């Protein structure tokens, strides 16, 4: 069975993208999967909100001087739908109130920004500085291309599953991936074998087959 889950992909894409070719980071299953997982773990946070937990990762943002002056050092990409209600609050009331966890240690973050209505992306800023991951590369994935999903499983924590691109719309930058188990209860982050962000397998608008 194949799951064609909607993914918000390349919403921050550069102007010039290349369809994945033979030597692209989507070509085939890599041999250094454990190295890839360790690279991702160095940038992953567990985000807790309204009794739910999902993952976020630090992207390679260039924070403004005014932002760093406020004490922020990292920008985390996570699910907008997880944090939707957080943005109903005033900015001052949500500063450093969000519970986030990095490598087993608790920290605080701020619900910072969110994408458009149908794009499942939001940002959380934190004072903790950790290694970042590229927010994009120069390739559009191809059908059958290898990707890895990172997501939170209750009782197990951060979980990785290999999967492959099942369908892609290069006009809308939305794609789907083959089904994997255990099924995510929320969103999942997708990366290629270079550790570059591919998109979010959203918990909304999802059709399980």
Can you walk through the features of this model?
This protein has 209 residues and is mainly beta. Helices cover 11% and strands 38% of the residues. It is built from 4 helices and 14 strands. The protein has helices spanning 33-41, 65-69, 80-83, 91-94; strands spanning 7-9, 18-19, 44-49, 52-58, 74-78, 98-102, 105-114, 122-126, 139-140, 146-153, 157-169, 174-177, 188-191, 197-201. Strands 1-12-11-10-13-14 form a 6-stranded antiparallel barrel. The protein has a 6-stranded antiparallel barrel with strand order 3-4-5-8-7-6. The protein is globular, with a radius of gyration of 16 Å. Mean pLDDT is 84; it is low at 1-6 and 8-16.
Itemize the secondary structure elements and their pairings:
Layout: E1 7-9, E2 18-19, H1 33-41, E3 44-49, E4 52-58, H2 65-69, E5 74-78, H3 80-83, H4 91-94, E6 98-102, E7 105-114, E8 122-126, E9 139-140, E10 146-153, E11 157-169, E12 174-177, E13 188-191, E14 197-201
Parallel strand pairs: 2-9
Antiparallel strand pairs: 1-12, 1-14, 3-4, 3-6, 4-5, 5-8, 6-7, 7-8, 10-11, 10-13, 11-12, 13-14
